[in-house]
Design a protein that fits this description.
The protein is of the alpha/beta class and 358 residues long. Helix content is 35%, strand content 13%. It has 15 helices and nine strands. Bound molecules: iron/sulfur cluster and FE2/S2 (inorganic) cluster. The site of FE2/S2 (inorganic) cluster has 9 residues, from helix 14. One of its GO terms (biological process) is pyrroloquinoline quinone biosynthetic process.
Length: 358
Amino acid sequence: MTDAPWALLAELTHACPLHCPYCSNPLELVRRDAELDTAEWARVFAEAAGMGIVQAHISGGEPLLRRDIVQIVEAAHDAGVYTQLVTSGLGLTSRRLDDLVRAGLNSVQLSVQDARAESSDLIAGRTSFRAKERAAGVIAAAGLPFGLNVVLHRHNLDRLQEILDLGARWGADRIELANAQFYGWALRNRTALLPAREQLDRAKEIVAAHDGSGPEIVWVLPDYYEGVPKPCMGGWGARSITVGPDGTALPCPAAYAMPDLAPPNVRDHSLAWIWAESPAFNAYRGTGWMTGPCRECPRRETDFGGCRCQAFALTGDAARTDPACGLSPDHHLVRDAAEAAGSVAGSGFAYRRPPPVR
Ligand code: SF4
Ligand code: FES
């Protein structure tokens, strides 16, 4: 029998005021008029709680662009699920946060693009840093558990210490240093975003030298440089369900890009069926699907063969060993890109474009 998932990533909308060139949303964004309504989300949370899911990341796009965000949080809370709002901070006033806390919101993860306003705004594709600073003040004043998420790449890695100082100054409890992962928008912008190895080496020294005071620091593996794949999603269909704005259910938010996956939709099936029975969630579950070096590898129960989305994005076959792995016959695809990174001038960002509006 399949173990129950632990977390639900609820992508309420792909609409967003920002245009980050590494956005984890798909290249084809869901239209606003296709989004699940309040009652449909309430049913999803009730089913999630019934399956034993304990935590929902209420995300987007920008979830605060949903006019019914308070009712959606309330539905998740009433179902008995711990809720975390994942937000750009734009539109997060203290009145709005008060309403959300009254509805049962448990924690907030705020994104920031850099430690300085000018470069943060350049990466976000619009003026936004000061609004984020105000949002951080609102979250800290509310006393909620406060995570700061920073995607790291060539254009901000050199300011890692300033980023850590910013997180401490803003009152974050935890800073997630998410080295950019290259699929979707980030793959499109890979030349501009890939850091030089020396930048990463200096960043790792800063993280290693951190004395443990202040916010907890989480370092997400820069897999292009390590020769070791990440245990992506804790394994395919092992820990987490993503439900997209239109009800598409995926084992991973980046799996939108796999054309043959045929993901199920919560409008057609129960979450329990989707998790346990759907072909999409079973496609790369466990180790039986493995090919090439993964099949005999002692690490196969540790890293699950790496990332299926990366294998698909770089080789066209999601069942191949993740090219980030040094044992993969496709490893040159990653190694060559990483080695060229320091010598190639950034080509400018292809910013995420907004989805069509209703
Ligand atoms: Fe992981 Fe497969 Fe590489 Fe082994 S061969 S380390 S299981 S990705
Ligand atoms: Fe989809 Fe890694 S991002 S499995």
